[in-house]
Amino acid sequence: METARPPLLESVPMAGPVSVAVREFELPAFTHPWHRHPEVELTWIIEGSGLRYVGDSVEAFQAGDCCLLGAHLPHAWLSPKDAGPGRVRSLVVQFDPIRLEGLLQLPELTSIVQLLQRAAHGLAFDASCGNRLRQKLSPCTTALSRLNAVLEILDELAAQPNARPLSLAPWAEQRRAASDARMRRVLAHLSDHVDGPIAQKDVARLIGLSPAAFSRFFQRAMGKTFQSYVTDLRLDLACRHLLETGCTVSEGAYAAGFGNLSTFNRVFRERRGMAPREFRRLSFLRS
Fold it and tell me: In terms of domains, do 188 and 84 share one?
């Protein structure tokens, strides 16, 4: 899938004068194109597997996958190209945070506001969160009860300690950073040299900043430290090697700039929740 192209801007229909759309999809395959919309989206995969694209992240997904995506964060769930006959199912909740702006100013909803800010990266949750989503929504028969259930779900998700960010940086922040000539130069340099040694002091010198000033500049622009960003960038490249080539795990690690296989395996488990070989086993290539 070519994610460098601009995502399609999708219009999310609302069934009547409501603030929240709740839909369950049952399809032969997930084929919806790379897209974005102003609504926040909570998606639970009930059946199906393939590749999940969120911002600059690409990962394998399977039944139980549960993600919260911020407004305008590009995404797509895609079934494998060679998948046989069958079906896929998902439960999707979408709402425009601007419509709920007044409500979200209430002090009781502070944790939800903070959750939505974190969702600018995209957040992945345990499969159990998807089951809770259905349990909360199934009894709802009115628009108000659905809204209340969604708020309760978001409040529960805000308390989840193991929510994992997906995209390297919030999409809106990436776009703002790209408008800064210095940051464009930094990101281009990292992209060109991700598979080799990268020293923060050398990148700082590239744009005429001291290491300390560069550290503050980078974290303010990208929402994470320089080293954390480089690690995530290399991990994303390694994932693509594992998904899209026939390389071994060690070959994928070294091709992505990891100089030590044990470090790669440890970081992979920490940030993907599984070993690289398990990740590859669960993944499917879609060309």
Answer: no
User: What is the domain-level CATH number for residue 148?
Assistant: 2.60.120.280
For residues 136 and 133, what is the distance between their CA atoms, to the nearest angstrom? 5
Between CA 209 and CA 194 the distance in angstroms is 21
Sign of CA dihedral 75, 174, 164, 266: positive
Alpha carbon of residue 152 to chain centroid? 22
User: Residue 235: inside a domain, yes or no?
Assistant: yes
Coil/strand/helix, residue 173: helix
Domain match, 104 and 127 both = yes
- Model pTM score: 0.68
pLDDT along the chain (287 residues), means of 10: 62 79 90 87 92 82 92 87 75 90 92 93 87 84 90 94 79 54 82 87 93 90 84 84 83 90 90 80 51
- Range(s) of the domain holding residue 38: 8-165
Assign 3-state DSSP to the chain and report helix, strand, coil percentages, each to 5. 45, 20, 35
